[in-house]
Each structure stands twice: as structure tokens, then as C-alpha cells.
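Task: sequence design from structure.
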């Protein structure tokens, strides 16, 4: 298939700039996987599509306030830093702007000296390895001076950092939120549990590659970014028990989906505990090994994420659902509305 096959027209005013309050009052498009029919709901109605014994799999990754603004110690010139991945104690792979001023040995100050960084290596792709030093705990300092790395299509200032975190986030390491989970409240999670629906956690640290456009004409020529995942023994057992009972395994978000399908792919279809890196690319023609249902937001045209949705829901059904969502003025992308495919 061609990348352009996944294009759709989206009016700019439908790109959500701020999150809905309360979280679970966003809209929900119910999509019937068997018939392709769609129905307008609110996110708090999601409980109606979950049955006792089903399993919701959520990504518990927590977003780093990874955008830092600082000054070059030598010249006082301004610079911007984005933390991408931790490589060691106080050692991070980063994206630095402007890059020309970021040579090996250059030192930068953030938060009026609360954090000092020195470039120790320039990688082939232009990313920089930076060694940091600070008096307080690194992550405590980051919470004080860092800003949320919101996607480029969000231009409004985020007043509350926690609105770009899920209520169940705990494992620090993502450069972007697993946004399908942003709709859940603590109260809704409790109602789901009270219904007898089980909830399992996986961790996949979302990289900025999730926003990288597909530039290849043929989708099979696209190179996926790699992300770190972890699945506990407890979660593996819960998935296997759910499957054995004949209940549904429903992923909250494409990141949870990619974790489940990666584990199964790496282990000949079996779900076992483990961790590693995955660059799995799911597009139409892919045979799902674990997934029975998917909760997800509306994704960018021609993105790998709309391709994943098309693989699960069917290409024609997906493009029809997106057309319906545009016509009915659903809110799109990270702070937008959601769909459940089941």
C-alpha cells in the first residue's frame, strides 16, 4: 500500500489544543469490528463495552518534563534541549537546538545553575550525548525546571503538567504521552474494576519517533523507530489466563498494542515476561496474535498509527470512521477524542 492511501482531510480547528475536563467527558466513537458500524458516545460509556473477565492492558509509562531551556556557559547564548533516552547515570541522549553551537566539550546551564550539562559525544544522526551534574536528585530537578514536550501541533500552553500524564503513570521515561490513557479517571478505573474487568500494566517508553512522518511512498519502505518495553510475569499470566477463559484482551493505546504484539512476535506467539526494544511496524496485512480490542485516539494522516488502526479494524472501515469523525467534528490527536474498536 501507498502512504498516500492513509491521507484524509482534517480542518485545523479540529486539532485539540487543550484537554477536556473532566478527562472522561471527551467523546468516544464506538466502532463495531464485525459490522463496521459506528456510534457516538462519551468516554465514560466505555464501561458498557467491557465485560466481566475481560482484560484492559494499559501503558504505565510516565512522561519526562524533557524540554529544557538554558544558556551556553561560555557565551550566554540561548539553547533548547530535549531529553530522548537515558543511557547511563546522568547520561542522556538528547536533541539540541541550535545544533551548530553544540560541540563536544560545550557546557550548558539550566534553571540558573540547578542543572549543568556537558556534551560528551555527537552521534551520527546529530543527537548529542550529554553528561549532567546537579546537587539535588536529577528527576526532582527536572520536575522543577523542565517543560512537557508537547507535540508540535499543540500551540497552547499547558497549565497543568499532570494533564499530559495518565492517572496510572508511574515508570518515568517517555518523550510523549500514551494519549489513549489520558481519558481515564481514577473513578472510572474503579468502576471498571468493580464490574469485574481486570487491568494489567505494561511499560513502553514512547519516543519522539511516534511523531515522525512517513516519507517513503511505499509503506513497507518506512523504517520504524525503536522503543523500550517491559512486561512483568504478573501481566503475562493475566493475559494468558484471559485468553484461556475466552475473554477479550483490550489494549489502551497503540503503545500497549505494540508491546503485546511485540512480545508475541518475539516468542513464537507466546506471551512471556521480558523486556527489550521493539521497532514493530503494524500495517494492513498484519495478523494479530493477542489483540481483541483497541482504545485509541484519532491519529495524524499518513502516520504509522493510522496504519496500525487500519490493520486491526480494516482499511475501508478505518477511513470511513475517520471521515465520519471529521464530519461530526470530533477532536483530533493527543488532547482529542477517542475511539474503541471491538
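Answer:
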Amino acid at each position: 500500500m501507498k502512504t498516500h492511501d492513509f491521507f484524509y482531510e482534517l480542518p485545523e480547528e479540529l486539532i485539540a489544543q487543550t484537554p477536556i475536563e473532566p478527562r472522561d467527558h471527551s467523546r468516544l466513537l464506538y466502532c463495531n469490528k464485525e459490522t463496521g458500524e459506528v456510534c457516538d458516545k462519551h468516554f465514560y460509556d466505555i464501561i458498557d463495552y467491557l465485560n466481566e473477565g475481560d482484560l484492559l492492558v494499559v501503558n504505565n509509562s510516565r512522561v519526562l518534563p524533557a524540554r529544557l531551556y538554558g544558556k551556553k556557559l561560555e557565551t550566554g547564548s540561548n539553547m533548547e534541549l530535549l531529553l530522548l533516552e537515558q543511557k547511563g547515570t546522568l547520561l542522556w541522549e538528547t536533541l539540541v537546538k541550535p545544533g551548530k553551537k553544540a560541540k563536544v566539550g560545550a557546557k550548558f546551564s539550566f534553571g540558573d545553575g540547578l542543572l549543568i550539562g556537558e556534551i560528551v559525544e555527537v552521534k551520527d544522526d546529530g543527537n548529542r550525548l550529554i553528561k549532567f551534574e546537579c546537587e539535588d536528585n536529577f528527576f526532582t530537578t527536572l520536575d522543577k525546571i523542565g517543560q512537557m514536550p508537547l507535540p508540535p501541533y499543540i500551540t497552547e500552553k499547558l497549565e497543568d503538567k499532570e494533564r499530559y500524564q495518565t492517572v496510572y503513570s508511574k515508570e518515568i521515561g517517555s518523550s510523549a504521552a500514551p494519549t489513549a490513557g489520558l481519558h481515564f479517571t481514577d473513578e472510572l478505573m474503579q468502576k471498571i474494576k468493580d464490574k469485574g474487568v481486570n487491568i494489567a500494566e505494561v511499560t513502553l517508553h514512547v519516543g519522539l519517533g511516534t511523531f515522525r512522518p512517513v516519507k517513503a511512498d511505499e509503506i513497507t519502505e518506512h523504517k520504524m523507530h525503536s522503543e523500550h518495553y517491559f512486561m512483568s510475569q504478573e501481566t503475562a499470566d493475566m493475559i494468558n489466563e484471559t485468553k484461556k477463559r475466552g475473554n477479550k484482551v483490550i489494549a489502551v493505546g497503540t503503545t500497549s498494542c505494540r508491546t503485546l504484539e511485540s512480545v508475541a512476535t518475539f516468542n513464537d506467539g507466546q506471551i512471556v515476561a521480558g523486556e527489550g526494544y521493539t521497532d514493530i511496524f503494524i500495517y494492513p496485512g498484519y495478523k494479530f496474535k493477542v489483540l481483541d480490542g483497541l482504545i485509541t485516539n484519532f491519529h495524524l494522516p499518513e502516520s504509522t498509527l493510522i496504519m496500525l488502526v487500519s490493520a486491526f479494524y480494516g482499511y475501508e472501515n478505518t477511513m470511513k470512521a475517520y471521515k465520519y469523525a471529521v464530519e461530526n467534528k470530533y477532536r483530533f490527536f493527543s488532547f482529542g477524542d477517542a475511539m474503541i474498536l471491538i
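Residues 3-63+160-341 form a domain with the QueA-like fold (CATH 3.40.1780.10).
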